[in-house]
Amino acid sequence: PLRGFEVWRSALESNGEGAAPIKVHEGLLAAAARSFEDRELDPLRACRYELRARGPLGKERRLGEARYEGPGEGGAMLRLVGPNPSLQGTAVLFRTPVAGPGELAVYDATGRRVRTLFAQPQGGPHSGSVAWDGRDAAGRPVASGLYWIRLTAPQLKRTARLVVVR
Fold first, then answer.
1. d(C-alpha 56, C-alpha 76), whole Å
2. Nearest CA to 53 among 36, 29, 83?
3. The whole model's pTM is what?
4. pLDDT per position as a tens digit, 32-67
């Protein structure tokens, strides 16, 4: 039987080597856990995550790792954090490197706007994380299918693809 999971994070240095890992939560995550949000992630810094399982006698087993590579070209960033395909949405990390209006929105495969997740008519640069719960602007669950998460700002357009399975 499984007692639970642990998530560990280590910063990645420019040579690709990881620093000493640190546990990013208190206690154990429930054995039935399907997601985890790292609220202390620095979106500008690359890191590696390790998922470890704990058995009933405290025995640890490494299950795998994932890498977060940090922002893209020019400091702009759009990253989906979570499973893809997804059963109920995802978390989105974003960053625009320039001042001006910024918007993060979800579109269906036909190009119809499903929901706006973030909109600022002025200010910036903008950065943050937003959770999309897989619902449209009216609060209804979206149908299974392909969705596009689009980040727009002055002289910037980034798009990420998400498949929703119901």
1. 44
2. 29
3. 0.59
4. 776 677 777 776 677 888 888 888 888 888 888 877
